[in-house]
Amino acid sequence: MIFLAFAASLIPTLAVYLIFRKRQPEKEGYAADIKTSLINGIKSTFLLLPFALVFHIIGALIKINDVNIWIRQLYKDVFMAGFLEEAVKMVMFRKVLKKSSCEYSWLDVTAYAVLVGLGFETLEAIVYAFMTNPAQVIVRGVTMMHGMFQFIMGYFYAKGLYTKKKIYFVLSFMLPFLYHGTYDYMLAEEFSGYGDIFAFVPVTLAMLSLILVFVMIRFFRKNRDVEKFNVSLRPAIQAAGDEAAAEIPSRQNEAVTDNPYTEQNETQ
Questions:
Q1: Taking the CB of residue 163, how many other CB atoms lie within 10 A of it?
Q2: pLDDT for 237-266, tens place per residue?
Q3: Residues 50-68: b if buried by 16+ CB within 10 A, e if exposed
Q4: Are 173 and 90 in contact (CB under 8 A)?
Q5: For residue 58, what are the contacts with CB-CB under 8 A and spacing of at least 6?
Q6: What is the pTM of this model?
Q7: Are 128 and 10 in contact (CB under 8 A)?
Q8: pLDDT tens digits along 24-62
Q9: Are 118 and 16 in contact (CB under 8 A)?
Q10: How far apart are CA 245 and CA 237, in angstroms?
Q11: Which residue pairs, CB below 8 angstroms and at least 24 apart, start in 50-53?
């Protein structure tokens, strides 16, 4: 039964991967980046292990299990789970952009991030399949929590590339980290006897993740032909040679013509 639940939980991830992969068949290098993003997400679970081991050792040395339960779970659920996992996924997501040979856009960057999250979630689901019941495994697959954390990350990271505003790069990490950390913290079994709020908040955040799935679908469908979300965000300096660099549209050159933030400032 648990095997069937695990297989069913992978259907949303597989569907998203196939849809994203076929989005732009004409764009050279795009399909390879999509595949790399999913693989990098899977790899990120292995990259996380040595860091988690280090912080488990640190926790043992400082006797974290002997401190106040609120602080203990803050260390374990918010820092070790939320912060470390989002940091590792951010590294692997940025690695996709660094190694990419594709002219990635706002939509592309967001898609890469989502697949990094889903890749991470796929391997993590194997562990949860032996720790929880079939219903929870299916719920995890349908809500695609890690994919939605990375949807937020990719959207704001791409917005930072587009607007050249550092605040969006900060938000691209802080928002999924706070979302993830809060979810894990409030879901801790140690708090189960402290009131209904510790059940209400995780359920609400899981429902929010499900809503974000539909927001993501609408985002890609609504903006597939919008220039702002399809223009290249790849800096010309990354091109392989001067001739190739000249062919790549620079965001700085386009800022006056198609950046709504610039137009608004000039109007004011």
A1: 16
A2: 344 333 433 343 444 444 444 444 344 444
A3: eeeeebeeebeeeebeeee
A4: yes
A5: none
A6: 0.83
A7: no
A8: 888 989 999 999 999 999 999 999 989 989 989 998 998
A9: yes
A10: 7
A11: 51/84, 51/88, 52/80, 52/84
